[in-house]
Specification:
Elements lengths: L1 E12 L2 E12 L3 E5 L6 H9 L6 E6 L2 E5 L2 E2 L8 E5 L10 H11 L4 H14 L15 H13 L5 E5 L7 H18 L2 E6 L2 H7 L2 E6 L2 E7 H14 L8
Parallel strand pairs: 3-9, 3-10, 7-8, 8-9
Antiparallel strand pairs: 1-2, 1-4, 4-5, 5-6, 10-11
């Protein structure tokens, strides 16, 4: 059974189409990457799934339950059990690493002793247990990424949504965090929906890649097929539309 299904979803802003007749099935445990240039609609897809915006047309299902349909949310974002890591990370700067991770657990009413154990276990998983009392400003970019991952995963989400999370990192650190994401996904087994404009990043992270253009799915398939697609495209075009 698919864990996430988009059925003919469309969304416009100020009468400008952002996503057009978007249909996609994402099986449980899959690493799916949406690849495309800025403005192609890939971030809008994540925002629709997260429940931050509603579709103008079509519907969205998570584990067989319809969570959104034309013009309305049937399930609010906080009840969709999705973890999210966006480009700006959105760590609370005034809170320690511990308090950042505890926030969602407190909202769920998890007792203090259990919260502390969950925080310690998750920080160990991302190799950040020694920074439990630190604040975000005291951490490097890579360390902040690990904390953001830990915070998103501590509630055991059905799926993890990541929107251009490595854009601000240098190449070496980006490669390290990619490997960290793959390790965590293998150990925990969550469904991953990852958005990027970087082709190499897409090919390393995903097992399946969706290429988007102008709000539509231009191509979809396993990494090998998408690599071949770009090879053929580069032979026929003087300039690759998505860059190297």
């Amino acid at each position: 059974m698919s864990s996430i299904i988009f059925k003919s979803v469309s969304k416009s802003f100020n009468k400008q189409p952002a996503v057009c007749d978007f249909s996609l099935d994402i099986p449980m445990g899959q690493r799916l990457v949406i690849l495309g240039h800025s403005g192609c609609g890939k971030t809008t897809v994540l925002r629709l799934l997260a429940g931050f915006i509603t579709p103008d047309e079509g519907s969205i299902e998570i584990d067989g339950e319809r969570v959104a349909e034309k013009g309305r949310n049937l399930k609010e974002p906080e009840h969709r059990n999705l973890g999210m890591v966006f480009q700006d990370l959105a760590l609370w700067p005034h809170l320690t690493v511990k308090s950042n991770l505890e926030f969602g657990l407190k909202a769920q009413g998890v007792p203090m002793r259990q919260r502390m154990q969950k925080v310690i276990d998750m920080l160990k998983l991302v190799n950040m247990e020694s920074y439990i009392k630190s604040r975000p400003a005291q951490l490097s970019g890579g360390q902040q990424q690990r904390v953001a991952l830990a915070r998103a995963l501590i509630l055991h989400p059905k799926a993890l949504l990541m929107d251009e999370p490595l854009t601000s990192l240098d190449i070496e650190l980006s490669l390290k965090i990619r490997k960290e994401i793959l390790r965590l996904q293998k150990e925990i087994g969550f469904t991953l929906l990852y958005v990027t404009h970087n082709r190499q990043e897409a090919f390393q992270i995903g097992t399946r890649v969706v290429v988007m253009s102008q709000g539509k799915i231009e191509r979809i398939g396993p990494v090998g097929q998408i690599k071949e697609y770009f090879k053929k495209l580069s032979k026929n075009l003087s300039e690759d539309p998505l860059g190297a």
